[in-house]
Amino acid sequence: MLLAELREQVCAANKELVTHGLVTFTWGNVSGFDEASGLIAIKPSGVEYDQLTPEKMVIVDLEGNVVEGDLRPSSDTPTHAVLYKRYPQIKGIVHTHSSFATAWAQAGRGIPALGTTHADYFYGEIPCARALTDEEINGAYELETGHVIIETIADGDPMEVPGILVREHAPFAWGKDPHNAVHNAVVVEEVAKMALHTMMLNPQVSSVNQTLLDKHYLRKHGKNAYYGQK
Amino acid sequence: MLLAELREQVCAANKELVTHGLVTFTWGNVSGFDEASGLIAIKPSGVEYDQLTPEKMVIVDLEGNVVEGDLRPSSDTPTHAVLYKRYPQIKGIVHTHSSFATAWAQAGRGIPALGTTHADYFYGEIPCARALTDEEINGAYELETGHVIIETIADGDPMEVPGILVREHAPFAWGKDPHNAVHNAVVVEEVAKMALHTMMLNPQVSSVNQTLLDKHYLRKHGKNAYYGQK
Amino acid sequence: MLLAELREQVCAANKELVTHGLVTFTWGNVSGFDEASGLIAIKPSGVEYDQLTPEKMVIVDLEGNVVEGDLRPSSDTPTHAVLYKRYPQIKGIVHTHSSFATAWAQAGRGIPALGTTHADYFYGEIPCARALTDEEINGAYELETGHVIIETIADGDPMEVPGILVREHAPFAWGKDPHNAVHNAVVVEEVAKMALHTMMLNPQVSSVNQTLLDKHYLRKHGKNAYYGQK
Amino acid sequence: MLLAELREQVCAANKELVTHGLVTFTWGNVSGFDEASGLIAIKPSGVEYDQLTPEKMVIVDLEGNVVEGDLRPSSDTPTHAVLYKRYPQIKGIVHTHSSFATAWAQAGRGIPALGTTHADYFYGEIPCARALTDEEINGAYELETGHVIIETIADGDPMEVPGILVREHAPFAWGKDPHNAVHNAVVVEEVAKMALHTMMLNPQVSSVNQTLLDKHYLRKHGKNAYYGQK
């Protein structure tokens, strides 16, 4: 993939955040990763979505150093970079403060898999990472945010549960490309809303069992997937 | 009815899901049944609503076998087919993951008839079907989903309560044609939202009595109906 | 006022229901009263709002008899007519199934005056009428609905609290003309939403005191009102 | 700054209330302060937003006396004026009845800092002022509203927590100019919504600690701020 193509994908994916109602002001950013060059394209910090053009995307390396671009990259760049570095499967990352998912993050609770809407995309609970320590907050904060995400995923496959809640903060989601990452961020918000209302109707509700989780997740994502066109 | 006309109705009804805000991405599908030919037209799987044309609708028989069309039909086709087969009154079926109705399905609760909005369309509670067994999930899952819906309706008239919640999944609704089925799916979502908020204001609330249920349902649907124009 | 003018006002006010998001499908109607002729113009039953024209408004008398028009009037016509007959101050009436107000009606609870938003328009609680008896439901149902509204207002001034919840049903609102009635119906819905959320944050919350109620209501409606332009 | 410029800014900021969905009817107003002349431009009372032009903005002095303009200024003018007089840092003020923030005001609860969305803008809880006494309500009500706001902020820096809830009433927000004040009013509403849902998921949730509050607030607002472009 040429960087020009990655810039276009990342720019378009950032604008999709607005289309899907995931962002207020500039409270969200999308990046994409190009495996060939080992470089990341990411939204510039604090720039409004309707002002974004492919040229304004900032190119950084896996350490978060700016390689191309006159604008500052998103302040969350170190979080994105460390995730790409640790999990080569991830090719697009989204961070938003979408309303219902942020409420779960603020409540310090993971979103349990309460139905097939969730199971179609997330192979189990969308976890809530632990709170950062004071040392981590006062240190390389955005990098440490990436570290607690990695600590939570650990050696799991990040593509099986392509999203997480950062405690007292907000969600991150990822995917096989920037567009797919936004898609997953939309699903995080939708299931967050449904799960809140489910809890209100039935506070003792439990997660779907493994059989239903397997059925729905694998119907869409397994090697015998039969959802969609061939 | 010509199949061409059915294709048009089904295509239009699928697009109505977007107009009424019932779907995120491709999380919903509408089908229609033509009595003369015994054939069903249904949305192709995973295709975006704005890409749909009458020609893309897939024609299947009552066993769910594709009769016409190059695209795969909705993965939920066996659920639709078995309902048409069992209940000849049904001429249109809708499945969505609309947010509030899905919350009730996830909570495992039927939506009680708490007021006249509900009683105008549903002659009693919108039931929540039992959970599928592991065997059913691992077997012909979508067909078994149809079977638990039928088990719930049993020998009742499906037109008196034209919708149901599939537990841990989401709502289905139906009607005398595809457009009417979508109409009923909208009502399921609206009453699901109202009923949640009603429960929050009065957790001990009980359903309306039979007299009010009769009055409103029959005002719109009985042989002496007097709502609307003649 | 000429009836032609009333027809236009009532037609426009019905369309405002859509603009303000108060209605799904045809779940609402507006009427207006012309004092000179003693006649009412009201929405035809079951006709979609974008199909309405002034000519389609149905003219009825205070007994609800059709005087002019080819279409059937709203099935709620007897409720409107009896309110105009009893309270000559009322010149416009609205009935909707707006979502949050309907939740309060279904819960059987009046909406308490919890803040100045409420007090700016309603001089006290928006009451919830008693349930109709089986006899009333099986009798002249829509007329009896009007009677329980009148029983609730009694000899009070309906313009001081220009709205009510009909139990297990939905809200009615009214005003000095059809447009004003819709305005009040919007406020009923807004304060219903705010009050639900207030209750969730503070279940023991009590109504504002008489001093604040007086201040806000009279600031807008008293003889020394100083809100708006002269 | 010329008054002509201030008029334009204030007019535009009032229209932003509509864009951001903060207002129903005319339930909100924005003003701006010009330090050089010591004058305030404010929305005329009860005029619809789409009717506003820069020329219609009313110019008042710090005592709230009209200096220029044919229209009555907002009835809340004395509240705005006394805040500008007491806190020269404030250059724009907004009052709305935005739905979720008003629910917190009606519940008599300040909005705690439950996450980074809040901490990015508000350096601690958004407080809820005490209720006005009967004497204050019956006296110079709008001026006394300003006084209880000032009593709550006291000698704090109003720019560190640029918003407040007036009990049983609704929010006020402010900023370094009218546009920035509207921006902060949007944030008050967003965090009010998130915080309500957080409370529902975790009623015992506590505020973020000082370290995280410092990190996020100062990342955007401190002298070493690194969010956005230079």
Automatic annotation (TrEMBL), chains A, B, C, D:
Keywords: Carbohydrate metabolism, Isomerase, Metal-binding, Zinc. It holds the Pfam family Aldolase_II. It comes from the Bacteria. Its cofactor is Zn(2+). Residues 8-196 form the Class II aldolase/adducin N-terminal domain. InterPro entries: Aldolase_class_II_sugar_metab, Aldolase_II/adducin_N, Aldolase_II/adducin_N_sf. CDD domains: Aldolase_II. GO terms for biological process: pentose catabolic process. Belongs to the aldolase class II family. AraD/FucA subfamily. This is L-ribulose-5-phosphate 4-epimerase. It comes from Gynuella sunshinyii YC6258.
